[in-house]
Amino acid sequence: MKEEFTEKKAENAENPESDNLTNDQLNDETQSQSGDNVSDWEGKYNELNDSYLRLNAEFDNYRKRTLKEKADLLKSGSERVLIDIIAVVDDFERALDNISKTEDIEAVKEGVDLIYNKFKNFLTRHGVKEIETIGQTFDSDRHEAVTTIPAQNEEDKDKIVDSIQKGYALDDKVIRYPKVIVAK
């Protein structure tokens, strides 16, 4: 385009009257080319804007779908736990019915002991473990000190001497802190 302009300018130098006409023609050519550039830019803008809107909508659908899947997973996970615990509840109901009918206390104790063991197995199956306390070194991240007592000797310092309430962990997360007495 620059070459065309230079050639036409050279022609106009020979004929000054045609100068205005040639400049108008050049302006028309320049405007038509810039008009093409504007329509190219508008097309690219519209294409990118459409792509952005589609991507945004797709991400929003993905986010909603994953939230729904998480909610369903939590619901079905708790459902499995409840199904397992119903068996223990059934055992308790049978034991309560038989307690009033029986005279044999040893049989009742044995039945309650069986139910207790079944319930502990249920907890173990679902990742719940009792936190060891007595004789362990006190750890404020895993234990709750209720009180302290003087240590009998130097080896017993910062050791747990008694447990008032058991603590439990679900996998590695403490879900109930054990309440303990610590030797100081």
Task: Please characterize this protein's 3D structure.
The protein is an alpha+beta fold. It has a domain at 129-184: Nucleotide Exchange Factor Grpe, Chain A, domain 2 (Roll). 64% of the residues lie in helices and 15% in strands. It has three helices and six strands, in the order H-H-H-E-E-E-E-E-E. A three-stranded antiparallel β-sheet has the order 1-4-5. The chain has a three-stranded mixed β-sheet with strand order 2-6-3, with no helix packed on it. The longest helix is centred in the first third of the chain and has 83 residues, at 19-101. The model is unreliable at 17-21 (pLDDT under 50).
Task: Draw up the topology in text.
Blueprint: H1 2-14, H2 19-101, H3 105-125, E1 128-130, E2 144-149, E3 160-165, E4 168-170, E5 173-176, E6 179-183
Parallel strand pairs: 2-6
Antiparallel strand pairs: 1-4, 3-6, 4-5
CATH fold-level assignment of the domain at 129-184: Nucleotide Exchange Factor Grpe, Chain A, domain 2
Gross morphology is elongated
Distance separating the two termini: 93 Å
Quantity of strands, as a count: 6
Instruction: Tell me the name of the CATH homologous superfamily of the domain at 129-184.
Output: Head domain of nucleotide exchange factor GrpE
Percent of residues in helices: 55-70%
Strand fraction equals 5-15%
The computed structural class is: alpha+beta
CATH class of the domain at 129-184: Mainly Beta
Runs in which pLDDT lies below 50 for 5 or more consecutive residues are 17-21
* Number of alpha- plus pi-helical segments: 3
N-to-C SSE series?
A: HHHEEEEEE
Average pLDDT for all residues: 83
Question: What is the CATH architecture assignment of the domain at 129-184?
Answer: Roll
Radius of gyration: 42 Å
Query: How are the strands ordered across the major sheet?
Result: 1-4-5
The biggest beta sheet reads: 3 strands, antiparallel
